[in-house]
Amino acid sequence: xxxxxxxxxxxxxxxxxxxxxxxxxxxxxxxxxxxxxxxxxxxxxxxxxxxxxxxxxxxxxxxxxxxxxxxxxxxxxxxxxxxxxxxxxxxxxxxxxxxxxxxxxxxxxxxxxxxxxxxxxxxxxxxxxxxxxxxxxxxxxxxxxxxxxxxxxxxxxxxxxxxxxxxxxxxx
Length: 172
Fold this sequence. Notes:
Layout: H1 3-11, H2 14-35, H3 39-57, H4 67-93, H5 99-126, H6 131-152, H7 157-160, H8 168-171
Helix pairs in contact: 2-3, 2-4, 3-4, 5-6
């Protein structure tokens, strides 16, 4: 299969992948809201997002829209949920969420990891290496590339995984 055909065949999954990313942030931030005893705001956001997605589900029956209406509804509702939950968390705790540290750097690191691990896996497999060894090598290599990419973007891996102290203020 040619690369251009392969890219086009998977391109329609991009909105769904982006929706899943926002779904993860929405879920985590919704859990934070429940943890800081803001269950009412958590429920409000969930109901609002479900109403938005339900509105988009009705577009599935429109001619020419089909399942793309469902995917668009999921994308819009999860983006709305993540943004609203982040706003309520910030308002309730005063914590500022760094978009670079929470979204951009991990996203770029994951993209680099996925592309290079896939390339290594295909190269090893085509070279006659057994599949289990190729998968193991690609996973280990991918994790190292991910951590290196985070480090290169200024995200301290040791602090992120609490291998070292956060800073002087929290230690005192």
